Task: inverse folding
């Protein structure tokens, strides 16, 4: 079986934008500009920076408590969610992999891997192919996830003909 | 002017529940029980644990970057949001104060102060009186906030006749 090797890239705009939004101060500054000062000047608010897009007003917050993974990682399936975007907000500053792909007639195409910097979350767009939550820190990671929590089926999986091998170059 | 002194209590159920939901693994276990195992067993999902309640499907994620505050703190106004609950998800494990109060005919009554443990977020219920985000860590704190992001007015403030003085007892 052939495979595709990927080295994760830093998670930055504009590279990531067609797949989703970056939830970070730097990302918000790039996408939305200067913040609003609230609470009598004690707090910066970067408003509505994630591009939430969830069906039927069935939006909820869930907790994902993920075990860690060690490189190299083999990714043999991707998934997507037709009923809504899916935001991953890290609660303990641990970097995680964001594996995404284009869609070509219902099949994932041109996969890419990004690595967050610990301060970044992401909101993956509705119906965008992505790998499951993958945390490299030995302790794993805790995330608040904002996604569809209604009763309709919302998971499509695609087994990859060419599994992805995620490796790291020396500079990371 | 008279004041009311409050010592923050640990943020636990059932004490906090009439004001909102606790966003933490321990809180989720108390409120929702055992998690779902997803991603081939590598991740626990505690689903829909925050009790989101936001008008008009105008739900968004914003970033709040808050300066720190030092005790004792004087709180001379509280606020509430008629169009939605407001969730604060800490992104860098810094404890923060959650100041809440009952409502009596449109006036805050019986204020309480809670202190999170660093791993906890909260979702404050729609129309519940609360103090502004208050972070005690010298670096301040970064939060993802899930709340109403529509165009209608959503802020009511009430100046307190008796300001609150938040202090800490020796054991904290």
Result:
């Amino acid at each position: 079986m052939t495979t595709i090797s990927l080295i994760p890239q830093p998670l930055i705009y504009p590279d990531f934008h067609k797949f989703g939004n970056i939830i970070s101060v730097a990302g918000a500054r790039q996408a939305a500009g200067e913040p609003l000062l609230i609470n009598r000047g004690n707090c910066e608010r970067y408003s509505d920076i994630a591009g939430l897009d969830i069906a039927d007003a069935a939006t909820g917050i869930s907790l994902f408590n993920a075990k860690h993974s060690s490189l190299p990682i083999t990714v043999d399936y991707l998934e997507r969610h037709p009923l809504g975007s899916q935001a991953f907000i890290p609660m303990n500053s641990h970097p995680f992999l964001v594996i995404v792909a284009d869609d070509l007639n219902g099949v994932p195409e041109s996969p890419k891997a990004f690595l967050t910097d610990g301060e970044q979350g992401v909101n993956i767009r509705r119906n965008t192919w992505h790998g499951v939550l993958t945390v490299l820190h030995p302790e794993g990671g805790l995330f608040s996830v904002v996604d569809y929590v209604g009763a309709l089926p919302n998971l499509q999986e695609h087994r990859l003909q060419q599994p992805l091998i995620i490796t790291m170059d020396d500079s990371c």
Q: What stands out?
A: Chain B has a mean pLDDT of 90. The helical segments of chain B are 25-32. Chain B has one domain: 4-166.
